Amino acid sequence: MTDLQLADGSVGGLLSFWSLIHVPDDTIPTVLDHFRRVLRPGAPLLLGFHVGDGSHLKTQGYGGHPMRLYVHHRQPDQVAAWLREAGFTVLLLDSDQSRPGAVLIAHHAEVAPPVVSDPPG
Q1: Domain 14-108 top-level CATH class
Q2: Which helix (H) or strand (E) covers residue 104, if one does?
Q3: Residues 21, 57, 52, 62, CA torsion sign
Q4: Which residues contact 22 (CB under 8 A, 6 or more apart)?
Q5: Segments of the chain scoring below 70 in pLDDT
Q6: Helix (H, G, I), strand (E, B), or coil: what is residue 45?
Q7: Alpha carbon distance 51, 81 (integer Å)
């Protein structure tokens, strides 16, 4: 997700269900930039993720298999903000407080977001 080897605008839709949970916060903008780059204008993006705050090390997978990876929990509003900053339009945010997950539906905005550069000096 941090280095998609796909042509610009070559994907008609993208599904990322519970995969960003393994990407640290500081890498999320890179991933979303790649998602936007490979999506066609107007193409949908569907994200699912764990809701909460903080990260924890997971050492056991389904069926008791050993593993070692971090799981990151995030607030839906933060994920929506990252999407907007990456040039997506957020269409739907579904976060039910009775479940520990959220689903966001967004689409590739037609116009690229402005590039912000550091002021000279």
Answers
A1: alpha beta
A2: strand 101-108
A3: positive
A4: 69, 70, 71, 72
A5: 95-99, 110-121
A6: strand
A7: 15
